[in-house]
Amino acid sequence: MSEKGKIPGLADPDASKLATSQEAWRVLGIMSEFVEATRSLSSTRPAVSIFGSARTSPSDPYYKLTEDIARKLSDAGFSVISGGGPGIMEAANKGAFFGKSMSVGLNIQLPKEQKANDFQDISLSFRHFFARKYMFVSLASAYVVMPGGFGTLDELLEALTLIQTGKSRKIPIILVHEPFWRGLVEWMRTTLVDEGMIAPEDVDLIKIIEKPEDIVEAIFKHYETRGFDLSPSEHEIMLNL
């Protein structure tokens, strides 16, 4: 029989106070990640975030294609932001590193340690996924999404959700290599739209583009009538991201 007013198995008060104290320090650590990242990346705009598999080898055609895209974006004046690790992330940083603009890596500390690639002009390390993901979104003038796994899909769907719900400004979201993405996009156009889960125009937030030069052109076309700077309304939206 438990004592009246107490829930069996509940942590004792001293342990609860310790956990609360640790949580408060954790919040301060998160704040410091935001402050450091904002300070370090203040001069990187306009920027394009590139996502894709960490498992892609340098001999893979996706790696070379990513490197070419990043180099063209860099030479066109865009900083290129990747997750800072191997695979597609490395290819993106490598292309930008040898281009005219900044190569930025937003690394994440994982239980199986992610090794930062060697092609970063600015390299930051995050403990918390959501702080890192915030920087990807807040800095990007466009997303370029290469073939990848769960992490890539997570970034893609988060960007789509933020734009769809008006929590982020509208930016180009470009998928590269149509055969890889065909099934997902077709499922969105049929199942999600047909069952009323999304509006037909939500699928139009995505563009599928194959050639590096066409990707650069599409991004410039999106901004040709307004420039890359945030409008006052967009600035307000991004402050409340």
Q: How many distinct folded domains? A: 1
Report the count of strand segments: 7
| Beta fraction | 5-15%
CATH topology: Rossmann fold
> By helix and strand content, what is the structural category?
alpha/beta
Query: What low-confidence regions span 5 or more consecutive residues with pLDDT below 50?
Result: none
Radius of gyration: 20 Å
Overall geometric form: globular
SS summary, helix count: 9
CATH class type: Alpha Beta
Question: What does this 3D model show about the protein?
Answer:
The chain is built from nine helices and seven strands, in the order αβαβαββαβαβααβαα. The chain is an alpha/beta fold. It has one domain: Rossmann fold, CATH 3.40.50.450. It has a seven-stranded parallel sheet with strand order 4-3-2-1-5-6-7, with helices on both faces. α2 packs parallel to α3 and α2 packs across α8. The longest helix is centred in the first third of the chain and has 28 residues. It is globular. 34% of the residues are buried.
Topology (SSEs and partners):
Elements: H1 13-40, E1 47-51, H2 61-75, E2 79-82, H3 88-97, E3 103-108, E4 122-126, H4 129-139, E5 140-145, H5 150-164, E6 173-175, H6 178-194, H7 200-203, E7 206-208, H8 212-223, H9 232-239
Parallel strand pairs: 1-2, 1-5, 2-3, 3-4, 5-6, 6-7
